[in-house]
Inverse folding.
């Protein structure tokens, strides 16, 4: 991305953004009447918003969250642990986001925030842009730990679930 990374600025005060796929990055193929996970959109969103805080995007995988398994969660955890930044934002599909947050909850002195969207960021009417902006800010403000941001709320990892009937997240 065009923004300086934390390494380039000489400090580790930037935000590492780890993308895993999910609805937030989905593309609709009209001719086939189907969705597929595409390239990460978060960098474009942050550039359009003129975000000045240093950030860098690490594309880890392009999966629907229903396809993310324990081996993938281990990869996500390892990416978090090996990042030089102490503040990490993860984009993730919503169906298993709470499970991943719980699986990577022990982050030591790192602040990790997971977010996603209920409709693709490429859609005009989507929660993606709001979620990205709010999660980016939350990553800068929250204390060390693993958090999830959805539906205008911050949840602690392990204390949240997706309510499939209402299609929103709620505290346990």
């Amino acid at each position: 991305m065009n923004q300086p990374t934390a390494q380039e600025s000489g400090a580790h005060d930037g935000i590492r953004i780890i993308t895993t796929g999910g609805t937030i990055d989905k593309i609709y193929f009209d001719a086939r009447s189907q969705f597929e996970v595409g390239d990460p959109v978060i960098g474009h969103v942050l550039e359009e918003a003129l975000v000045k805080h240093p950030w860098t995007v690490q594309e880890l995988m392009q999966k629907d969250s229903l396809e993310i398994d324990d081996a993938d969660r281990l990869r996500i955890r390892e990416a978090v642990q090996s990042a030089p930044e102490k503040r990490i934002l993860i984009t993730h599909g919503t169906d298993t986001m709470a499970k991943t947050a719980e699986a990577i909850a022990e982050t030591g002195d790192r602040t990790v925030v997971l977010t996603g969207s209920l409709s693709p960021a490429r859609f005009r009417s989507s929660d993606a842009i709001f979620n990205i902006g709010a999660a980016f800010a939350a990553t800068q403000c929250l204390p060390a730990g693993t958090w999830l941001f959805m539906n205008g709320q911050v949840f602690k990892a392990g204390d949240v679930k997706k309510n499939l009937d209402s299609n929103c997240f709620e505290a346990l």
The beta strands are 15-21, 26-29, 34-37, 55-63, 87-91, 111-115, 145-150, 153-156, 160-163, 168-171. The CA atoms of residues 102 and 158 lie 5 Å apart. Confidence is low (pLDDT under 50) at residues 1-11.
